[in-house]
Design brief:
Number of domains: 1
Oligomer: single chain
CATH class: Alpha Beta
Distance between the termini: 58 Å
CATH architecture: 3-Layer(aba) Sandwich
Largest sheet: 5 strands, mixed
CATH topology: NADH Oxidase
Radius of gyration: 20 Å
Helix content: 40-55%
Number of helices: 14
Order of helices and strands: HHHEEHEEHHEHHEHEHHEHEHHEE
Strand content: 15-25%
Shape: globular
Length: 371
């Protein structure tokens, strides 16, 4: 009986019966209640970001919003070049531009308006105008990363072409699809190998694991990071993960590698890679993030799952940071038929077997400053 009681306590405190319904997820339900400039920022906070770090602050003025990088929300070893950090800020701005139009503003975006030494990564200058309908704005509250398995079903070529066109609408950005079985197998092999390399690297493993929020108390306190609910696990596995004692980092790493190998990669209907002129350049990172967010919103409307998978470039950047031979760059470049320096972000798409759950979000007032 004592054991059953302990299980019941863990089940209750870790949210077995309340996924996505607590205060840490409230903004997903209330974001459209915000109006004016606050409504624009609320949409930004719901954007994708690496490990759900939410690496932003917003300095709000009556006719402009500065989007600032928050250094404490970087992942310095896993994201050594900051490509994912600045891409995440681009994701936020893409949501904000979509929201601005729907809320009656015309938004002009200036990137690094005060130079690269300033924390201000982008400035949205807002002018009042007529509200404009935008189907991608309507998808903001439904967009979630789907890390679960996808159905054995091809994505129509016409749909992939529409997503590619949407990405290419962003300055200097392209989108390369890997759809053949041979291409997907090679990409999967590289991703699994890179995932194993991350977990074998003690520092990188710890850096990545620092953003995992397993106990419900951590989710409610931090309101960020990767949670069990956001893994798109089957209901039994999810319940057991919440009821049983928390896994060690090493056990979680083994589960990640195995799930990548046996479930995520084999069920990818296609892989996409966002390309830019220079993946180490802040403006290209930012523009690539905007493109990825737009693609994810459009994929959501098409009932597609999308899951960023950047393990390859995380290892490329880690090798460069350590000054050691690059184990992945040339093979990745050969697969894509492009220079490695142009390959910014990767993801898989497909029709999901299970719905994705929302990730926690910071309170709007906690990321806002004003003058």
């Amino acid at each position: 009986m004592a054991g059953s009681g302990a299980v019941g306590v863990r089940a209750g405190t870790n949210g077995v019966w309340g996924a996505g319904t607590r205060d840490s997820h409230e903004l997903w339900r209330s974001w459209k209640d915000e109006t004016g400039v606050r409504g624009v920022v609320a949409a930004g906070v719901l954007a994708a970001s690496p490990h759900n770090t939410q690496p932003w602050l917003f300095d709000v003025r009556p006719s402009s919003i500065d989007v600032l990088s928050e250094p404490s929300r970087r992942i310095p070893i896993t994201d050594a070049s900051l490509r994912e950090h600045y891409s995440g800020l681009g994701c936020a701005v893409e949501n904000m531009v979509r929201a601005a139009g729907a809320l009656g503003f015309t938004a002009t975006v200036r990137v690094v308006p005060e130079g690269t030494d300033s924390p201000v990564v982008a400035r949205l200058e807002l002018e009042s105008g007529p509200a404009r309908a935008d189907p991608l704005y309507e998808a903001i509250g439904d967009r979630h990363t789907n890390r679960g398995p996808y159905q054995n079903r091809e994505v129509p070529e016409a749909q992939l072409s529409r997503l590619e066109e949407l990405a290419r609408a962003h300055e200097g950005v392209g989108l390369r699809w890997l759809t053949s079985r041979a291409e997907r197998d090679e990409m999967s092999y590289l991703i699994v190998e890179a995932t194993q390399a991350i977990t074998d690297d003690e520092e990188q493993s710890r850096d990545s694991a620092s953003w995992f929020r397993t106990p419900r108390s951590d989710v409610d306190h931090h309101r960020d990071g990767i949670t069990l609910d956001a893994q798109a696990l089957d209901s039994f596995t999810l319940a057991m993960a919440k009821i049983l004692p928390e896994q060690s980092r090493q056990a979680a790493d083994r589960f990640w590698v195995e799930r990548t190998r046996s479930e995520q990669c084999p069920t990818a209907a296609a892989y996409g890679v966002i390309t830019v002129g220079d993946a180490a350049a802040l403006q290209d990172q930012f523009n690539g993030g905007r493109a990825l967010q737009a693609v994810h919103l459009a994929a959501t409307r098409a009932e597609l799952g999308l899951h960023p998978m950047n393990q390859i470039t995380e290892r490329i950047d880690r090798d460069h940071a350590l000054g050691q031979p690059d184990q992945f760059g040339s093979r990745y470049a050969d697969l894509l038929g492009a220079e490695a320096k142009t390959l910014l972000l990767a993801f898989r798409v497909g029709y999901p077997e299970r719905a994705a759950m929302p990730s926690p979000r910071l309170r709007l007032d906690d990321v806002l400053t004003s003058h």
